[in-house]
Each structure stands twice: as C-alpha cells, then as structure tokens.
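4.2 Preliminary Data

To establish feasibility before requesting continued support, the project team ran the inverse folding procedure on a target of 1037 residues. The structure was first converted into the token representation described in Section 3, and no sequence information of any kind was made available to the design step. The complete token record follows.
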C-alpha cells in the first residue's frame, strides 16, 4: 500500500519530469511482449497482491515470456517450464547476478552475503557453505543436533500429553517454528533459541517468537526507491526505514552471538560424532577462519553468512508444513506411519537421518508440500550481458523473475495441480516430465545450497511426529472451515491445532527418551566442569611458563661449517640422520643448510605448537627447483604457497574427491582394481607355493586406482603394454628419481649457475614431457565430451552419472562455468598432484605392512582369523567391512607409525618470525617434523621399536600429537580416509584370499631406500597359496 500512496502523490510531477527526460529508451524490435504501460511507473500498477497471481494472469494474456517495465528497471518474467528451460542452462552464467537493489545494501552487509553479485566473492562464500555446512560430511556431522532437538520437542509434547488428563491442543505452525529455530541456532551457535520452559508459548515467548519471525523472516515489501532512484529520499521513510530497523535487530542479535563465542571459547560447544570428528558450531568455524583469513572472513562477511543461514532456515516452510498436517493427516498420515513402522521395525527406536532415504511416502508428503508451498517468485536475478530467451532479445541489466508458483500449478505439467496429491511423486510423475518442473529450491548456479539440509529437517520432524503420535485436528469454529482439496483457497493464517496422543506401542521409547536425557545431561555437565578446570589449569600453567621463559633464545644447533652450514652432515635417509642429531640436541634444534635455516621438531608438544599456535605461520611450503619445474611453478596443491590458489585447490579436491559420499561413489573402482591383482596372482598360482613379487603389485593397484579416478585409464600391470602407458610409467619413474635426489641447488643457489649435476636441465626436460602428456589427456577428454552425451548429463546428479565421470570431466565442466578459476594450468596441476601424492604413499604403506606381517606370522594369523570370523567365506572383502576389521586397521596404523611414507612430512616454511617451545624462529625457516623420532620415541611408546598392532586395541590412536603420519594443521593430508581405504582393501583382499609366507627362513629385509616416500630398499617377495575356502570365489573372478 505504501507504494500506491506515494505513487498517487507523485505521478503527476513525474509525468512532467518524464517529458523532459532526454534518454527515454529506444525499444529494441525483438523485445518480448509487454502489456501497455503508463508513463514513468511503467507496469507498476499491474503488480497487485499476491504478485505471483498477478504475474500468472499477465502470462495468460501475454505468454510465458513477457517484459515489464518497473520504473527504471526492465523485468523479464518467465512463467512456464519451456520458457525456463530455454533460459537455463543456456543463459545461466548471464543470469547468475543478483540486482544490486539500493535498499538491500544495508540488509546484505554491503552486498557481501551469499546474495552477492556473481563473482569471486560469491564463489568463495558458496564454497564455504557447500563445504562447511551443506556437504554430505557436514550434514552427517550435524545430524545429531537435529535428532537431539527433535527428541527435545517430542519429549515436551509427551510430557504435556501425560499431564492432568486433559488433552492439549498444539499449534503446529508454532511447533515447527520453535523446532526450526532451535535446530538452526544450535547448528550456528551451539545453543537453543527456546528452552523447555518456553515451549508452552506464554505471552512473553510468543512475543519472542514473533520478534524472531519478523527479524529473520523473508522481507517481502518492495522499496520504491529501488525502481525510482530519484524517489529514494522519499521512500527512505517507508520501506527502507523498516528494512533499516530489521537490519539493526538482526545485526544486534548476530553480534551478541559472536561476542558470546569470542569471549567464551567453551570446549563443550563442540561435540564428537561417531568416527571421532568434531562437530563445531558454524560461528566457531567462521571465527577460526577469521583468524586465518581476516581479509576475506571480515566481520561483515561472517555476519552475512549467519544471517543468511538463519533467515533462510526452515521457518519459511512452517506455515506450509502446518497446512500439510491439516490437509493430509486423514488421507496420508496413516500410510506414512505404516511405512515408518515397517521400516523402523519393533518400535524400539525413533526415526533418524539414515532412515529417510528409505521412506518414499514420507518424502512424497514433503515434496508435495514444497510444490504447493512457500516459493512463489524466485529471488530476482539480473542479466550481466545481452542475450536471447525464446528468440527475444534481452538487454544487459534486465531483471529476471521466475514465477515458480505458475510452473508448480501448470495443469499441463501436474495433473489436478490445485490438489494436494502425493501420488504424483510416488509414481515419479516428475521424473517422467524431467527438466526443471519443480523449482522450490531455485535453479542454475544460484540454486539453494541448503536443499539437502532443508529436506532432512522437514522429513525428520514430520516423520518423527507421525511415528510417535496419533493426531487429531481440533477445528476452530471462529474460522472458515478449511476446504481440504483446494489449496489455493486456503487462508494462509489459519492456525492448525492438533492434539497429539502418544502411541502406546512407542511408550517404551518415550520413557527411554525421558529417562535417558537427564542422565546424559548430567554427564555432560560433569565433563563440562572437568574440561573447564583442565583448560583453566593449562591456561594458568601457560601464563606461568611464559612469564619465566627467556624469550630471546635460538634453538640448539650442532657446530657448522662456513658457507655450507650443516650440509656435510646430511646422509640419507635424512630422517635417520636427523634422528641421530636429535639424540644429542633434543627434540627442537636448528640447522643451517647452505643459505637456508632449518628447524627440526620431534616431540608432541613441539609438533603441536607448530601446527596449532603457529599453524598459519608454517602453512607455507619452501620454494624449490622441484616446485618450480615439476609442479607447474608451485601451482600444485602440495607445493602452492598458503593463499587463495592453495585454498581453492584444497576446497576443490576436498569437495570433488575426498568427501564421504564421493569416496563411497568410487568404491567400485577400488574394488575392481584390487580384485584384478588378486585374479592375476591366483592365475599364476597353483596348489604349490608361488613366489610373488609384491612391491610392483602394490604399485599397480595404487596407480591404476588414481588413474581411473582421474582419467579413466589403466597404465600399470603386466598385461598393459601400449606406448601411452609406457610413456606415462617412464615419466613417473623419472619424476621419482629427480625428486628423490636431495637437491643441493635448493640450498646453494650459486650451484644453479653451473647446472650442478644437470638437475635443473633434467627437470626442465621432464617438465615438458609431463605437460605434453597432461595436454593429451585434456584433449582426449574434451573430444570425448563433445562427442558423447556427457555434457547433457552434467546436470544429472545420479550416482551412476557421477561414477562415469572422471576427475578431468568434472574439472572440464567446471571450467565451462568458471573459466577463470579452472584454467588448463590449474587442472593439469590438480591431476599431477593427485598422481604424485596419492600413489606411492599408499603402495609403500601396503608394502611395509605386508613385510611386517611376514616377519610376524602370529600377527598375520590374528588378522586373518578376525577376517574369517567377521567377513566369512561366502564373499570377497568389500570396503564397507573394513571398519569392523579392527586388527587389520591396527596393522595399518602400526605400519604408519613405524614406516610413515613421509617421515619428515612435506617441508613447511615460516611466513613470519615466531616462537616454538620458547625458541625464536625467524621468518623463512624450513620446518621438518621428524616422525621417525616422534613415532618411535620410547618415552611415548611401550616397546617403541616393536611391531605391536595390538597396542591400538584400546583405540588410543589420536592421543596428543604423537602419531601424525598424515601430518597436522592446515596442510594435513586431505586424503587420509581415501589412503586408508586403498591400503585396507588392498592388504585385506590379499590376506583373505591367500596364505602368505616368507621366501626363506630369514626375516624379510627391512632396509629403507632414500626416495620420496620412504620405500623399501628391496622389492618385497613372498610365497603365496590360494586359500581353499575361497577357491570358488577366486575361480569366479
Ligand atoms: C597412506 C596414505 C597416505 C599418507 C600416509 C599420506 C601422508 C601425507 C603427508 C604426511 C602429507 C604432508 C602433510 C604436511 O605437510 O604436513 C600429505 C600431503 C598431501 N597428501 Fe597425502 N598421504 C596419503 C595418501 C594420499 C592420497 C591417496 C592422496 C590423493 C589422492 C593424497 C594427497 C595429498 C595431498 C594433495 C597433499 C598436500 C596437501 C597440502 O599441501 O595442502 N595423499 N600426505
């Protein structure tokens, strides 16, 4: 109404202004159709409430693609699926911008929230949210929070229903609001919004809830100043003022959360989830990132992220969920309940996240709720350049409105579209139609990243309510009765009151809910107090030590020679030499390698200090010839300096390769490769013991797995003889030789002048070969992509489609969307890094593990016995079984303790002066963490030199920093889980299928060779015989 009021006053003045405006638009002849307009205001007068309905009426008259002129902004309106498909994905990048509406500047923290214009800033925010909040792993980690909050609310409902004998009605809309606010705040800040005593919604709590709804709910009023810039001064007192007030409230709310977290680094705010990972409130993650990247994670950006998460959380959907409850309860809830009971079984437990995928009926309720639900017109986009849509010319700067409401109700797409009809999802009606028929979460690049979270919260809350209660709707006579079949005519504000009666069959569960929680809470408080006392004591101790320490100290160092420093002392293997020095000079000492200062640390406390307190300072890698020539000028993830490039590469690899669901997706490749080697050994073996050279087999498995992930190729194995494979193997061999040679030129730059040992010229030659090969791979993939239908499948998210894609395919399709980030150079650098870092590390671990087991047959028997008991003989080992094979896991851990593939980690370098264990360490110091000393320290390990996998039987692996085979801190190996899976599967399969023995009576030689990944000096040989109980499976391979 504000809008019409102002317009009435001003229209006559503006007509005069308009007459004198020189640059009135010259209409392009191919513009989309448009209704007749009024001077100045254009089509503003046509936007009657509800806007989506008005737009649908216009589209009936002017077609699914039409143009409106709203003051100074041209607005393209799309209202049909075909029109939208015409526009997306063809013009997706062009329409990936959001219009910079002046009124939004403050609400959007100067356009720095995720609603920011399309570009680097937006991409970084998007990656952050995708990784930290919405990735499969993060969702899995936050699932406990959702379950806990739902139980909290259910418990309250139970309690109330048992009280006083009088049935109490519950306003479901408020129920969903309370639940959703609690879940979101718990995820964001680690605490609830509404505590138990507030759940009955007295007047004060109602006020608090309304206030939150207003503050974080969607803001729907249009600010005229956005469309009539010269009227901004007037509208400043209307809609913009309301926005300003809302902004102040939001900002104060978020600031209070931030203050609380900054001042209170409460260890209990984190919780450990199964698998040992820490689920931290999002604020803490952001504050941590603020410390490391203050220039990107500014306070405004942090507030913007929190605001978006809170504002876009589920309360948007609460009204619709409530309406669904009313509409469907009699028709559908019985079936949904049966489905849940059938799936969950004996009523002994409540629904959880893992059940949801198996409940199609429940899903259809949620999907239909969303179809008829809250999304009307999608948030506006703006074209960044001229383009065409449906054959019409669309000029740059045109605002785009997609009328999702019209699409969702299009009778041509949805039979009986105005009915709440679950069958349409059960019969996969939408799948038959395909394309972008349902737009509840938007589409294209700007699609809602929180779809997975949203669906889970809705399904879990509704599902648990259905599972636990019988429902009875209480009709409120003061309102017009609801007409159940016609959704469009329902009143939005009609409350839906339900009496929830606990189901008898689940009473047991309710009781356990009620009894267990307080006990858990008591334990929490106990641990909380203990932790606070512990950390406080540590803090005091630290203060005390700092006060008494002499801060101006350099670490101890052996006497050196002029010019070369300690270079003359360096014998290979380097970690053993450094170990000997540490025996004399302690766990923190320094060396001088030619021009470079080196710090060597080997105690848990020193390592911890380097990778926690000084983690950012040591997150750099030193410059080296190998980094320059063999790593695309420091562009690979392992050699890149700490900064934007490294962060982008790291995010990309984490998301595309190493996060849980991707890992699972590629398990087929790992199994196939491992089984191929098993088959090969089996074919060579007879009943007699066969002598097998295992080292090369482990190499074959590790390389082929990586190659298939990256490029869909297999280059290793005795059956592979083609020229391309040979070329690749030669390149890798040469790479290993060159990187392994300790490169004096890195320490004595003068030697570069004489091309000492021709290292540099050999590297340059090899670099050309590497690049040529990488180019070939890219070219081949590009050609294949353009020929095949892969491009079309890019939109498909099915596991099958994803499985077929290689990492190169994924990167090439990302290149189409973000060419400036996914340059050819970056793609080649990712491929190279994966091949170097992801192959020998795993193969050398398998090699050492097998050698250790051969020397300790009793430990080998223990592993096999466990495998026989837990896996049995009716199938070959699969990845999902690895978790339960504790003895096998312990063998891998013990191998990584004794023979870590990177015994000095990769070298780090300090970016500024710092202190380590009280010693001054200048900027530019190279850091080696010597795992050989650390992980064999007799003060830390019982019988430190002995191979004793059983030492981990109690699961005390991650105690302190005494075992870090994958590194620590920011540059920790991103593929630890991946590596362990490859090693576990490779080793496990060989142990399951064959009997293994040493070739002679003597122990296997355990000498190391000086090379990149600490490999064995001699290739490993062993005698093997197929195991009889598995013979049929082996024959079937
Ligand atoms: C048993 C197997 C593995 C072990 C023991 C291992 C160990 C390590 C270690 C110690 C580092 C250096 C950490 C530091 O400098 O602080 C590292 C870095 C790295 N690893 Fe692994 N790794 C393994 C498997 C893999 C696999 C399979 C891949 C890839 C597919 C991989 C990719 C990387 C990358 C890209 C880096 C560099 C990270 C950076 O600089 O940011 N690793 N790994």
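Position-by-position output of the design step:
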């Amino acid at each position: 109404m504000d809008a019409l009021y102002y317009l009435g006053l001003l229209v006559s003045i503006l007509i005069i202004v308009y007459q004198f405006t020189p640059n009135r638009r010259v209409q392009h002849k191919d513009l989309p159709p448009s209704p007749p307009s009024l001077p100045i205001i254009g089509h503003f007068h046509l936007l009657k409430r509800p806007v989506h309905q008005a737009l649908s009426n216009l589209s009936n008259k002017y077609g699914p693609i039409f143009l409106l002129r709203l003051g100074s902004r041209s607005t393209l309106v799309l209202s049909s699926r075909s029109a939208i498909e015409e526009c997306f994905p063809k013009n997706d990048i062009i329409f990936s911008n959001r219009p910079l509406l002046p009124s939004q500047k403050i609400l959007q923290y100067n356009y720095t929230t995720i609603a920011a214009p399309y570009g680097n800033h937006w991409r970084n925010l998007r990656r952050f949210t995708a990784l930290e909040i919405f990735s499969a792993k993060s969702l899995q980690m936050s699932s406990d929070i959702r379950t806990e909050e739902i139980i909290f609310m259910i418990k309250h409902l139970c309690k109330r229903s048992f009280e006083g004998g009088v049935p109490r009605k519950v306003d479901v809309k408020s129920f969903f609001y309370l639940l959703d606010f609690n879940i979101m705040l718990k995820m964001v800040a680690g605490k609830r919004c509404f505590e138990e005593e507030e759940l009955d919604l007295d007047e004060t709590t109602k006020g608090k809830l309304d206030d939150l709804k207003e503050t974080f709910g969607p803001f729907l009023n249009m600010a005229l100043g956005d469309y009539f810039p010269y009227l901004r001064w007037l509208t400043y007192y209307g809609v913009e003022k309301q926005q300003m007030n809302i902004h102040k409230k939001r900002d104060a709310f978020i600031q209070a959360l931030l203050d609380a977290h900054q001042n209170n680094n409460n260890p209990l705010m984190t919780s450990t989830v199964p698998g040992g990972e820490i689920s931290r409130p999002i604020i803490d993650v952001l504050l941590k990132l603020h410390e490391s990247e203050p220039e990107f994670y500014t306070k405004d950006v942090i507030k913007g992220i929190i605001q978006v998460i809170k504002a876009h959380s589920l309360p948007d959907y609460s009204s619709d969920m409530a309406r669904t409850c009313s509409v469907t309860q009699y028709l559908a809830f019985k079936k949904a309940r049966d489905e849940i009971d059938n799936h969950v079984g004996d009523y002994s437990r409540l629904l959880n996240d893992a059940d949801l995928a198996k409940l199609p009926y429940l899903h259809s309720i949620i999907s239909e709720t969303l179809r008829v639900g809250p999304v009307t017109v999608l948030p506006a986009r703006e074209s960044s350049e001229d383009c065409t849509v449906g054959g019409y010319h669309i000029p740059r700067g045109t605002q785009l409105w997609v009328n999702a409401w019209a699409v969702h109700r299009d009778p041509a797409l949805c039979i009986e579209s105005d009915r709440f009809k679950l069958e349409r999802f059960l019969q996969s009606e939408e799948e038959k139609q395909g394309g972008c028929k349902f737009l509840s979460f938007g589409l294209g690049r700007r699609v809602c990243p929180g779809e997975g979270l949203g669906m889970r919260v809705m399904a879990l809350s509704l599902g648990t309510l259905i599972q636990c209660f019988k429902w009875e709707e209480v009709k409120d006579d003061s309102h017009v009765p609801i007409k159940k079949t016609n959704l469009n005519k329902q009143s939005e504000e009609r409350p839906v009151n339900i009496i929830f009666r606990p189901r008898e069959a689940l009473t047991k569960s309710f009781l356990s809910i009620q009894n267990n929680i307080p006990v858990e809470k008591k334990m929490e408080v106990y641990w909380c107090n203990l932790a606070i006392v512990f950390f406080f004591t540590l803090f005091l101790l630290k203060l005390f030590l700092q006060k008494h320490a002499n801060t101006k100290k350099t670490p101890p160092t052996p006497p050196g020679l002029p010019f070369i420093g300690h270079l003359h002392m360096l014998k290979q293997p380097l970690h053993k030499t450094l170990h000997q020095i540490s025996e004399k000079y302690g766990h923190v000492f320094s060396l001088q390698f030619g021009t470079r200062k080196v710090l060597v640390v080997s105690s848990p406390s020193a390592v911890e200090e380097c990778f926690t307190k000084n983690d950012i300072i040591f997150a750099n890698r030193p410059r080296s010839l190998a980094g320059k020539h063999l790593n695309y000028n420091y562009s690979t993830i392992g050699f890149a300096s700490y900064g934007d490039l490294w962060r982008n590469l790291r995010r990309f690899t984490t998301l595309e390769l190493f996060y849980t669901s991707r890992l699972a997706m590629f398990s087929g490749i790992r199994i196939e490769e491992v089984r191929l080697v098993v088959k090969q050994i089996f074919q060579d073996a007879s009943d007699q013991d066969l002598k097998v050279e295992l080292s090369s087999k482990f190499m074959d498995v590790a390389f082929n797995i990586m190659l298939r992930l990256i490029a869909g190729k297999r280059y290793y194995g005795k059956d592979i003889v083609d020229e391309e494979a040979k070329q690749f193997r030669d390149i890798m061999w040469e790479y290993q030789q060159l990187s392994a040679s300790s490169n004096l030129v890195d320490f004595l730059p003068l030697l570069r002048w004489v091309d000492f040992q021709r290292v540099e010229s050999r590297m340059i030659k090899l670099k050309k070969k590497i690049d040529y090969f990488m180019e070939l791979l890219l070219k081949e993939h590009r050609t294949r992509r353009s020929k095949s239908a892969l491009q079309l499948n890019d939109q498909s998210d099915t596991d099958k489609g994803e499985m077929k894609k290689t990492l190169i395919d994924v990167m090439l399709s990302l290149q189409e969307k973000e060419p400036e980030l996914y340059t050819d150079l970056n793609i080649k650098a990712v491929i190279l890094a994966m091949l170097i870092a992801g192959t020998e590390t795993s193969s050398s671990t398998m090699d050492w593990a097998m050698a250790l087991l051969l020397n300790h047959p009793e430990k080998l028997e223990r592993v096999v016995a466990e495998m026989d008991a837990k896996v049995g003989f009716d199938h070959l080992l699969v990845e999902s079984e690895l978790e339960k094979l504790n003895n096998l896991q312990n063998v891998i851990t013990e191998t990584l303790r004794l023979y870590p593939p990177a015994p000095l980690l990769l070298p780090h370098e300090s970016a500024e002066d710092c202190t380590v264990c009280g010693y001054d360490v200048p900027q530019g110091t190279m850091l080696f963490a010597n795992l050989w000393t650390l992980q064999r320290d007799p003060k830390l390990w019982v019988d430190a030199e002995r191979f004793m996998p059983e030492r981990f039987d109690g699961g005390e692996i991650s105690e302190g920093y005494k075992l870090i085979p994958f590194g620590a801190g920011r540059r920790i190996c991103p593929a630890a889980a991946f590596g362990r899976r490859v090693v576990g599967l490779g080793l496990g399969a060989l142990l399951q299928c064959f009997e293994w023995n040493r070739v002679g009576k003597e122990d296997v030689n355990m000498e190391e060779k000086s090379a990149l990944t600490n490999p064995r000096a001699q290739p490993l040989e062993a005698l093997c015989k197929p195991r009889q109980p598995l013979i049929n499976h082996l024959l079937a391979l």
